[in-house]
Specification:
Elements: H1 6-29, H2 32-39, H3 43-50, H4 53-77, H5 84-95, H6 98-101, H7 103-116, H8 120-141, H9 147-170, H10 177-192
Length: 193
């Protein structure tokens, strides 16, 4: 009989090990054996909790997305609703948060983006994430711009975020969050003036 409370310990342990292994060897090399070894558990535990590698990858991405959502919500809580530009920049800053910039997170994001093109479940998760970003930005922008214009600006900001992420994650120097936020801020200021 399994020990009480073990899923709350094992699941995060395996998700963290998955990101570390992806960071070390990439998604294609991230075998159940390597992940379980990194986590210090038997390979059967992955099947028990996640139904295999695919379920573990899905759970890993859902965890990363929940963490991103939490970061953005915390930043938005600090800013009054009527400070539209500050709220938009908080959303942008959340997407370039230091935690999300760590190598294991950045490589997990890249692996997820690449794999989502070939996997319906991961593709759906990616679409929800992309739509959520545009939706949050549009909600803020609609406070000061007509809906169509707000959506256009929101989609451009989302494309800037994704593009900066992709270029930075593939760069040997990584992503410069301050520069990324500055680039988006300059675009936003031009659109709102």
């Amino acid at each position: 009989m399994p020990k009480l409370g073990m899923p709350e310990i094992r699941r995060p342990q395996l998700i963290n090990a998955t990101m570390s292994v992806i960071d070390d060897v990439g998604l294609s090399g991230a075998s159940v054996s390597l992940i379980s070894k990194k986590a210090g558990v038997s390979t059967g535990i992955i099947n028990h909790y996640f139904g295999g590698k695919h379920g573990l990858l899905e759970a890993t991405m859902r965890t990363v997305l929940r963490q991103l959502g939490s970061i953005v919500k915390n930043k938005l809580r600090e800013i009054p609703d009527d400070q539209v530009c500050a709220r938009i920049l908080a959303i942008v800053e959340g997407n370039f948060d230091r935690q999300q910039m760590e190598s294991k997170y950045a490589k997990t994001w890249l692996a997820f983006w690449a794999q989502s093109m070939h996997d319906p479940v991961l593709y759906r998760i990616q679409r929800v994430n992309a739509c959520r970003l545009v939706s949050h930005l549009t909600i803020e922008l609609k406070k000061i711009r007509p809906h169509a214009e707000a959506k256009y600006i929101a989609e451009t900001i989302a494309a800037l975020i994704d593009g900066i992420w992709l270029r930075g994650a593939l760069s040997p120097n990584g992503i410069n969050p301050e520069l990324a936020c500055q680039q988006v801020r300059q675009y936003l200021e031009k659109q709102l003036n």
